[in-house]
Specification:
heterodimer, A: 115 residues, mainly beta, 11 strands, B: 113 residues, five-stranded antiparallel sheet, globular
Amino acid sequence: DTGVSQDPRHKITKRGQNVTFRCDPISEHNRLYWYRQTLGQGPEFLTYFQNEAQLEKSRLLSDRFSAERPKGSFSTLEIQRTEQGDSAMYLCASGTVAGSADTQYFGPGTRLTVL
Amino acid sequence: QQQVKQSPQSLIVQKGGISIINCAYENTAFDYFPWYQQFPGKGPALLIAIRPDVSEKKEGRFTISFNKSAKQFSLHIMDSQPGDSATYFCAASMKAAGNKLTFGGGTRVLVKP
């Protein structure tokens, strides 16, 4: 499968615990994006990387959230001291800046439930 | 600030009918307008996309109509099938802002057999 993959697909945790999600983008894509989607809503932008550089963080990304893309390939999103309001689907997408390309391809998402 | 507004929130159409979903945007700097289809528990999948220098784009049963002066664009699904039952999202992005997507609120489409 050459698409975007995310792991785990589902995560249930207790309030106050830390969680980490992983995203593996399409191999030739140099841009990687994280979005959050709550039930019945459209995805909201969180942050994005070009290669290993984190270029923008949304104000939605509180200081409990941190994202990395250490070698410009896979990325991790960590949430510290989880809160019930963090329950959502976390989506990763990848794309490329080559030429006029604008398309982003999404992974299946990680569904987080905070009890 | 909701930069992309989508309507209707839900839609029921008979098999073979036409589904029409509308979106309006505020930021004239947007330069790319994709539509995504999402099934429950899955990530969004790109359906079709358009740039503001084109007024219409058709791919199979899916057509985007774009009205730059009105800052509106719409998705038409022709000959709707039960397998088209899903949530559809319009989105907008601009190259100058890293192509990050701003999504509409979504339209839940149900195609009745």
